[in-house]
């Protein structure tokens, strides 16, 4: 049963990872339409050492982040360049959550131990009769944002939540792309 739940979490995380990606955000270029010039954000791998995971988490072999097999919890991280979290907030609408089959729970401000600010969105979804919590965290500065996607079964929320708050606060905003992507 625990292995099945873990496989469900990994599947939902990978599905969610693509669900939270915005169309055309995986490429970077400057675009010009008529007289307007704008920059298209891009998504890149980030060194996962920027975050200290809770006890029990190990580096995932399936995605850029950490996984806790015992509690069926995953933390996925990416770097979004050429966009700040305030701009990303504009896309976190009721329609966004409905389109991704998520039930919106809350939106709150976060701050790392280094003083870097961001936003955390909490939502829920059901997968094979199990309710999951999904947290999307954007932490950043003017032009770069760290995107953290956390998924765990609701039944472990009481145990997991305080540990995840500590991990989010531990984020170090020294942007370094993952060595494999250089």
In words, what does this structure look like?
With 182 residues, the chain is of the alpha+beta class. Helices cover 23% and strands 38% of the residues. The strands form two sheets. Strands 3, 4, 5, 6, 7, 8, 9 and 10 form an eight-stranded antiparallel beta sheet that branches. Strands 1-2 form a two-stranded antiparallel sheet. The protein is globular, with a radius of gyration of 16 Å. The termini are far apart. The N terminus is likely disordered.
Short description:
This protein has 182 residues and is of the alpha+beta class.
Number of helices: 4
Percent range for β-strand residues: 35-45%
Bin the helical content.
10-25%
| Radius of gyration of CA atoms, rounded to a whole number | 16 Å
SSE string: HEEEEEEHHEEEEH
Largest sheet: 8 strands, antiparallel
Indicate the mean pLDDT. 83
Indicate the overall shape.
globular
For the structure shown, list the relevant keywords:
about 180 residues; alpha+beta; eight-stranded antiparallel sheet; two-stranded antiparallel sheet; about 25% helix
Topology at a glance:
Blueprint: H1 2-19, E1 29-33, E2 36-40, E3 42-44, E4 58-59, E5 65-68, E6 73-81, H2 85-89, H3 94-99, E7 103-111, E8 117-127, E9 130-140, E10 144-153, H4 157-169
Antiparallel strand pairs: 1-2, 3-6, 4-5, 5-6, 6-10, 7-8, 8-9, 9-10
